[in-house]
Automatic annotation (TrEMBL):
<dbReference type="GO" id="GO:0003676">
    <property type="term" value="F:nucleic acid binding"/>
</dbReference>
<dbReference type="InterPro" id="IPR036397">
    <property type="entry name" value="RNaseH_sf"/>
</dbReference>
<dbReference type="Pfam" id="PF13456">
    <property type="entry name" value="RVT_3"/>
</dbReference>
<feature type="domain" description="Reverse transcriptase zinc-binding">
    <location>
        <begin position="255"/>
        <end position="342"/>
    </location>
</feature>
<protein>
    <submittedName>
        <fullName>Uncharacterized protein</fullName>
    </submittedName>
</protein>
<dbReference type="InterPro" id="IPR012337">
    <property type="entry name" value="RNaseH-like_sf"/>
</dbReference>
<feature type="domain" description="RNase H type-1">
    <location>
        <begin position="386"/>
        <end position="469"/>
    </location>
</feature>
<dbReference type="Pfam" id="PF13966">
    <property type="entry name" value="zf-RVT"/>
</dbReference>
<dbReference type="GO" id="GO:0004523">
    <property type="term" value="F:RNA-DNA hybrid ribonuclease activity"/>
</dbReference>
<dbReference type="InterPro" id="IPR002156">
    <property type="entry name" value="RNaseH_domain"/>
</dbReference>
<dbReference type="InterPro" id="IPR026960">
    <property type="entry name" value="RVT-Znf"/>
</dbReference>
<dbReference type="InterPro" id="IPR044730">
    <property type="entry name" value="RNase_H-like_dom_plant"/>
</dbReference>
């Protein structure tokens, strides 16, 4: 625990810890949804202990958020763009986000537990200690005392942020009429010059009984406004229920860190939309597909149209058909290449292509019996659109390296039938990758023995490993003189012919 003034440097070790946890080499192999899961688990575990007892400096909170954001979209490289805004990502999944936690709000919500304990005067030694030192007999929530020890200061800051979420609930009416915060945060006595000595001990139930107020029995003069205000406040008393603060953010009135967090998030949400997002996360599909759909729904998949708009691509014309702007709908449905995939899995109905609103198109297709096939179609279309270029370049460079090193017999496997067809069965001269395809075809004519065959990605663990390593790397091409350490065991099991059943 920290004593004395809290400084940024006191907490910089949290940043170091997070950095080292996120920088582990294994994380280089994660996909975006994998990184979301990891970032959430790391951010939810490492700073938690300190967040429960200290109000972290704002700069530390912003740094934690920044690291999370960068890690999700870029991993450990500098490659990759932020597809969806941070204010969306940090919404709950039900509200269209990914449920990534905001550091400041998480910190406040956790300290809220201490606010609650202190307010409820729970029977914990630290509560007694702070109570004796700073509060005498007043309510913590309404006490104005701001400065004290670091822990007191931390709890006080969290209190200010959460204050509106607490409500003073009247039960038995035993609260002081003058000195308790029953009508507003400030007790009645604050708006008066004095309280008559004969009145000072009065409780609510002494003035409100038989279902009405008896203000005329008071010795203390009240203004007309005040009398009006009070008489509009109708109480329902019950001797079995205590007067106390309750928490508005939960159904049972009890404060919990998670209800505190949701409450803070709702308060922050400046643009609430009532669109339901649960369906995405309820889909019976792999996480990577749900993530893709989530990106599609936020119109945030990196199509050329979107990249062009953000000045990240020179052109917005689809590189496959060269005929249309590559919007999300074009990329996933209307491009002839995409239409071929939909046709192959049975989506041939004209209605399927008539809807030009992306949201409505998704909505009408993710319901009903064809939903799973539709979701799979989205995935395969997105994959097919990205895979051709990467795969062709890999084959081209691979063959060149093999040629330079003097190999004379080569077995080359690809998991993309489309790519193999392009090379082996020919292609239009207008194809956007015609140059590289022709280069490969020319190389095949050399005086050496090259066999191109199809293999399933999950049947080739070494290739899968290298592909993931490559996708997390900045450099266009990386040549390994000898296998990376982590690949050796995979190669060994390949050499031993260990069988991998298809998942
Ligand atoms: Zn196209």
């Amino acid at each position: 625990m920290i004593t004395g003034r809290v400084k940024k440097v006191d907490f910089s070790f949290i940043i170091d810890k997070l950095n080292s946890r996120l920088a582990s080499w294994k994380n280089k192999l994660l996909s975006k949804p994998g990184r979301v899961t990891l970032a959430k688990s790391v951010m939810n575990s490492i700073p938690t202990y300190y967040m429960q007892i200290s109000w972290l400096p704002s700069s530390i909170c912003s740094q934690i958020d920044m690291m999370t954001r960068k890690f999700i979209w870029k991993g450990n490289s500098n490659k990759g763009i932020h597809l969806v805004g941070w204010n969306v990502v940090t919404q709950s999944k039900e509200d269209g986000g990914l449920g990534v936690r905001l550091a400041r709000e998480a910190n406040t919500a956790m300290l809220g537990k201490l606010v609650w304990d202190l307010q409820q005067q729970s029977d914990k030694p630290w509560v007694h200690m702070l109570q004796d030192k700073y509060l005498d007999s007043s309510h913590f929530l309404t006490s104005k005392r701001k400065f004290g020890s670091p822990i007191w200061n931390s709890i006080s800051k969290a209190k200010l942020a959460l204050l509106d979420g607490f409500h003073y609930r009247i039960g038995d009416g035993n609260s002081s009429f003058w000195y308790s915060p029953w009508i507003s945060r400030d007790p009645l006595c604050k708006s008066l010059d004095y309280v008559a000595i004969q009145d000072s001990q009065l409780r609510l139930k002494d003035i409100f009984f038989n279902d009405s107020w008896h203000l005329n029995q008071l010795y203390t003069p009240l203004t007309t406004d005040m009398k009006n205000l009070i008489s509009h406040y109708h109480l329902i008393l019950n001797i079995g229920v205590l007067d106390c603060f309750t928490w508005n953010g939960s159904l049972d009135g009890v404060y919990t860190a998670s209800s505190g967090y949701s409450w803070l998030l709702k308060k922050k949400q400046h643009n609430p939309n009532n669109k339901s997002w649960k369906w995405i996360w309820n889909l019976r599909a792999p996480e990577k597909i749900k993530f893709l759909i989530w990106c599609i729904c936020h119109n945030s998949i990196p199509t050329l149209d979107m990249l062009h708009h953000r000045h990240l691509a020179q052109d917005n014309i689809c590189s496959r058909c060269l005929a249309n702007v590559e919007t999300t709908l074009h990329c996933l449905r209307d491009c002839p290449d995409a239409a071929r995939i939909w046709d192959a899995i049975g989506f041939r109905n004209g209605d399927f292509y008539s809807q030009m609103n992306l949201d409505l198109w998704l909505n009408s297709n993710v319901k009903g019996s064809g939903a799973h096939l539709f979701v799979a179609g989205l995935w395969w279309n997105w994959r097919a659109r990205n895979i051709v270029c990467v795969e062709l370049m890999a084959i081209y460079h691979g063959l060149r390296i093999a040629r330079d090193l003097g190999f004379s017999s080569i077995l080359c496997y690809s998991d993309s039938q489309t790519v193999l067809d392009l090379i082996l069965k020919g292609h239009s001269i207008y194809h956007c990758y015609a140059a590289v395809i022709t280069n490969i075809q020319d190389m095949l004519k050399f005086n050496w023995n090259v066999t191109l065959s199809h293999s399933l990605r999950e049947g080739n663990f070494s290739a899968d490993f290298l592909a993931k390593l490559g996708s997390a790397n900045d450099t266009k091409i990386k040549i390994w003189e000898s296998p990376p350490e982590a690949l050796k065991s995979i190669l060994l099991s390949d050499a031993l012919r260990v069988l991998h059943p298809r998942a």
